[in-house]
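Subject: Sanity check before I submit

Could someone independently write out the structure tokens for this chain? I want to compare against mine line by line before I put it in a report. The sequence has 199 residues.
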Amino acid sequence: MTSRTPDATDLARVAVFAALIAVLGLPGSLSLAGGVPITLQTLGVMLAGAVLGPWLGALSVTVLLALVAVGLPLLAGGRGGFAVFLGPSAGYALGWILGAIVVGLIVHAGGRRPVWWRTAIAMVAGGIVAIYALGIPVQSLVTRLPLAETALTSSLFLPGDLIKAAIATVVVTLLVRAYPRGLRRQWRATTPEPATVAA
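---
Independent answer below. Compare away.
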């Protein structure tokens, strides 16, 4: 995969995915102990990293969070404003940026065409592990609960997040097969064709 300067189409796609993540917050959220809501928005983060790649995916998340910071109620439950980044869920929101990067790097590792198993690994590593890695320590700090107790509480998110990772894997796999241009990537062949080797 070769790097290139983002063009107008890239920026439009960044805006589309920022809007998608916001729309996935419309169904609302379910709050568990610790004040961190369960939302569908991490599904959008996973898809942004996989479809746009690590850097444009992260940019789409950053755009969304910037709009939230200036007061737009784009997070699940109609939350917005800078206070969001001072609460228990602040680390999870910021973890979305890291999550999109990790997903994009793994899905498109080595410039190779995405395959389902690498996509699944990417969704778990980026869409769950990376986000938790930032979210849990910040939640622990804000709530003043021990890190181990916070991690145990956060494990309640795992079933839902695994389902979202599975959905994202299926969506990306179908997109690669049906409309590979949608990912705007040039992939190198993973294995050469026999005719090519003979030539």
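---
OP: Matches mine. For the report I'm noting this point. The beta strands are 30-31, 37-38.
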